[in-house]
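job 3f2a | input accepted
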Amino acid sequence: MVINKQQLFTASCVALLVTSLSFGIRAGILNTLGVQFQLDKSQLGSIAATAFWGFPLAVIIGGFLVDVVGMKKLLVAAFVFHLAGILLTIFAKDYWSLFISTLLVGIANGTVEAACNPLVASLYPDNKTTKLNHFHLWFPGGIFLGTLIVFLLNRINIGWQVQVAVMIIPTLVYGFLFSKLNFPVTERVAGGVSTAAMYKSLGNPLFWFMMLCMLGTAITELFTGQWIEVLLKNVTDHPLLILTMTAGVMVVGRGFAGSIVHRLSPQGVLLISAVLATIGMYMLGHVSGNLIFAGALVFGMGVCYFWPTMIGFVAEYLPKTGAVGLNLMGGAGMFAVSIYTWFMGGHYDDMVKNKLPTGADMAAYKNALPGTDMANQWTAANSAAGPDILNTTTVIPILLTVAFTGLYFYMRGKAKPTLTPAEAALKH
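job 3f2a | predicted structure (428 res):
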């Protein structure tokens, strides 16, 4: 059976592109959906969160199934869920149709991750962290393209349904590519590591420490990105371009991941990333005007390596955890984002309400005619609440800086785990 590494890697990148386009386009149209379907921030938060808890549901279940059913069947399922979710979004009529369609897209996104992370690790066992960074550059790449699509199509008054429909093309492409390719077994299966040994490895305290840190890195990167237009809409005239710039920085950074990871080590990269993410998020919450874009640049440099390097660290230093370990990491991260997004959606409404006169009718202020005192007060309340949410979230990368400092010193002098004879044979 011939395994075409390059074609499998290319198809994986296209599948991840669909995942990230869904993220970028949804971030760009979230405010529009709120206006068209008369949704408050809490409802918008629950819709956005749905994609994030659909993801861990799929990635965790997929992690346990991938060794049994194979990566190809999982990716066929992802294709079906993506197509169904995109079409249902285009023809959505109310809150619940948006909720269900977003859930389907989230499940598809998680299924792609569940299959493709172990696939990339299996294809490139000698260069896992670098190739995972190259694979995951298509996540910010899709966000960059998605937000740019929304921005440009909005400028020429093309509706959000057409913007969502753009995702159908790469979905059909990756579905076709995967349908005709042969797949390897996962690295754990090929290396002869037993299921019992895998589950034993999942009990390693270092794995649970990384899982805990994954909660913070995922929230820092993905919550901020998904909500950036909502949070900063009243602070800058082009809030969506902040996400576009952040994503662009991440694409370039992940493209050069090889030399950076080899020079600094995964744990060194994570420490520097946490410091930059803290500075960038602080700037986003405290500056205005064009300085916001400087904050976005620093923030993008900070979150650039978080996700793929967290996955890569586990693949490199805890290889016996297998596909289950990689997918538990991704699932934990997305689950954390879903809970945080849901909580912050309601908290955002409460903060806006607290900045309005006591007993204010939120709906009346929201729907007030532009230029009136009520409309101005509504804008001012939102302008203050958005940065406050970012300032609250800044605590997370500060804690990550402390955690990754400890990890850096703990890992000094530690070699990668010795391979079993079967695993050594796989690498040669």
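job 3f2a | The chain has one domain: 6-185+213-409.
job 3f2a | closed
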